[in-house]
Write the structure tokens for this entry.
Amino acid sequence: MKLGTTAPEIATAPAIEHVITAPLDELLVEQNARLVEINLTDPEFFGAVLLRKSTGKVVLAMPAGREPIEQDCAARFLLAFHLGLPTDQFPTFITAETVTPSVETGE
């Protein structure tokens, strides 16, 4: 590093309290995320976090028609999970898992 230059900032995850209490619109902007509603009727599907490799943008995909408070809680939980933050302050019936897609070999 040359003298007089500064090191690039290293992004850090926000505190879980911030994820829980910040206005959702602001939180989504801070995390380069957006919420999209999808037409999926599976009652077991809570939502998904998708990461666009080309842009680094985070997409929170959730079923359409969810009550606003339910959607808010789901978005915050998914962001916390994505950021590796503790999720013990959310209802215990909400769980998540990481799924890594497999690549077809063409066989």
Q: What stands out?
A: The radius of gyration is 17 Å. Helices lie at 16-21, 24-30, 68-83. DSSP finds three helices and three strands in the chain. Residues 16-83 form one domain.
